Known about the structure:
Radius of gyration: 19 Å
Shape: globular
Helix content: 25-40%
Mean pLDDT: 94
Number of strands: 20
Number of helices: 6
Largest sheet: 6 strands, mixed
Low-confidence stretches: none
Strand order of the largest sheet: 1-2-5-3-4-13
Amino acid sequence: MTVNIDVRNVSSPEAEEMYISATPVAAAPIPEQWKEIFSHIRDILLSKKAYILQERIFGTKDAIESAYKQRLDEFGILDDKVPPAFLVCKEGFCGPAAGVQVHAVRCKNKPEVIYFDNNPSGRIVRTPGRTFLALSAISAALSPNPAEQAKSMLEKAVSILANYGADFSNVPRTWMWLGDILSWYEQFNAVRNNFFIEQGIIAKKTNQSLPASTGIGLSPDDNAACAMDLVAVIEPPHSIKYLPSAGKQHCAYEYGSAFSRATLASTPAAKTIFISGTASIDINGATTNIGDPLGQIKETIENARAVLRDTNCTDKNVSQAIAYCKTIDVQRVFNEFKKDLHWPVISVVCDICRPELLFEIEAAALIKDSK
């Protein structure tokens, strides 16, 4: 077996929620790696009678092109035509294919496909007392200007949410996939800040409803400057808990990035802690351990674990994680470190939002709902 498959799940009387993380563990021809990954995911979903809510595929440009065909061949009737987020990274130590991450659900009602301009863009699932929505790879590539694309992307998401009586106050988590991030991250932050102010998400510094978020240097496969994934909780209403500051880090908005360190939200079968992209950054927002890959990795993981502790979680609650490594050498250092981590983690090689940052990680943690 040349791939590793990890499944984390939680059940309620109404639903079962699961996260599948699939990663190569040895070099092999790209089509063979994808075939093994997608066939295992297919078998898990069929055996559980589960359906995909959100899906991400990571690899080099050539690997992504191969993934299209292998996914379609293996998934068959499981393919509801909602495209996953195909995300282009640099080649890692296991080759061009980095991995696949799936969030799935088993419940009485099959998720409904969400359409925008007649294009499948996401899914919505309804269980008693809960309505949960997931969008993938939302982009707007008409303008050559990245900042204009970002604004249009956010406006497109608002239009989709409005069709379901929702807005960004219903969104606990976003993922911002930003190609060539180092050349325009400040512009992106300005666009997002202004957009959230217009939407009322930022009313003043002491009254924020900012989603947890990741902004990272992965390119959408359609050559757009940016794309976005998000999840939204439509029911129960007003149920998202925001942690602007958490663990050992203060609010990121203090230095210009509009996101909470974490959020707590009701998901189809549980409550989920969404931990934002976290790096080796101190309480004042300064990068630490500059030039020291292992030092940045250790401090980053400790920062994420501090958020887990703040929310009464441990490593055992972690259901998925993505590690972003600046270079293949940093990825190798992390690969040795993660032998003692025991998180279901996919690692990718890509740029991070600051030139001196070598490592970033995000995570989600499942908490069995007591209600």
